[in-house]
């Protein structure tokens, strides 16, 4: 409904929503905040290693989702910015550790050498640990947000990363590597945990910071679940259809590693269709929020139209 | 003053303090709480790996310190127990990651094979990540403690683990390996960060949970700094003087790795004497707390008298 070139969706009440401009503006704010939170100090090597991966670009979709739901629920970007940065730090930690030789053994990430290829495995492990711990510190030190909300946010973040979230998803993913008989239930478990849990945390944490009602929080949680799974399906599709240059990482990696993916279970067309259905379901959850949900609507649509 | 066999220290006002009994009782409570917080669920492998290292014994000195300062400041053990367990989870995470081949490459810990020797490097890395994230979740979900105190605790825990704490200390430690010209300042930096920061967090977090005054918190912080450094010096001394059986890990490891230690800079006798001085300074900080500080006094003394 509210794609960047759609002038008819809002019945003339407001100008069309420019997602590109919206994302670019918020991306710049997030970059500045990340830079602010992580200056270089002694021992420089570890700060440089953390900054190398944290400031390596990327769409900053996770922090932007967090800022967006805080604003949707009548909060300010300032209130959500520490949590938004924490989410990006946590995401970066998971990438650094996933890329290690003992895990996915990846040499490139976002078009650059992976952290351990530059700094060594020991520093890469510690850089991940440092980012994870620091993420919780900066959320806990957020100003002008009631502490009752911050502890809720921290509990959700912790759970999203723990064995009940990202770590659990990664473990099952590793167990399934090279297996030809992975079921759709297992694949769903992997993705709702490995990537979905953190995406959901992005969406709900921004709203919790703004003091949203429980009912509205549940709607946003379902929105997040749907876009999270859609995001992963599209990721799998792009791994097959996109080139290495577009992707900024080794393309066709999943195929090489014989990883179970949605296209390998459903085929490419069915996968694309499922992603569309999930995005439609996500958008339906946003209806009660009216105009204030326009960024989230547009982000949902962006997931299925992105090419890298 | 308040050693386990000293009947004269309290001028007849109360029975002598039995540290062994005190530690054993609290250790049992901590074991039960750790077990409660980490049941096995799907995916079992990661929970088993986390439990393998978390429930591998150990003195539980960190959680016991946290419980002790909470009680000293008129709080209950129940209020501090989630944070006490979180501290042990964080400590265990640091051990699992430190033992990895890319770091200290240790095969044994507490007399058992290290985590990666049993579960593989990938699972060991993830087990550490999972324990770290879960630690913050359980602190944030503590009941019957004001959220304002919990966010203070979380900020301190995060800082204690981050590049400004444990991770920073470990990085400098790795940089110094095999170097013959490590200064006492660098060695102090390593230990006040690698082990001292988390020990200080144990002591101050328990007191924050109980709502202690800023002045008293500073006293406890200085107590912790002093016992933290004393603890490390004694650790270095024991690495030379204790046998592998007593230590539960490879003895003489520091010497083999050509690590700078206090005995290598000061010699054994001077190191022991410095540890005694630090313990005396720690005990002096406890004077205003009177009888309520007896466990902390006894723990300080225990550090210099322990043999493993």
UniProtKB/TrEMBL annotation, chains A, B:
MF GO annotations: dimethylallyltranstransferase activity
Q: Which UniProt keywords apply?
A: Isoprene biosynthesis, Magnesium, Metal-binding, Transferase
Database matches in Pfam families: polyprenyl_synt (PF00348)
SUPFAM superfamilies assigned: Terpenoid synthases
Cofactor(s), names only, from the UniProt record: Mg(2+)
Task: Tell whether Protein transport is among the UniProt keywords.
Answer: no
EC class: transferase
EC number(s) reported in the record: 2.5.1.1
Superkingdom of this protein's organism: Bacteria
Q: What InterPro entries has UniProt attached to this entry?
A: GGPPSyn_CRT-like (IPR054848), Isoprenoid_synthase_dom_sf (IPR008949), Polyprenyl_synt (IPR000092), Polyprenyl_synt_CS (IPR033749), Prenyl_diphosphate_synthase (IPR053378)
- Mind telling me which Gene3D superfamilies this protein's record contains? Farnesyl Diphosphate Synthase (1.10.600.10)
Assigned protein family: Belongs to the FPP/GGPP synthase family.
Name of the protein this chain belongs to: Geranylgeranyl diphosphate synthase CrtE
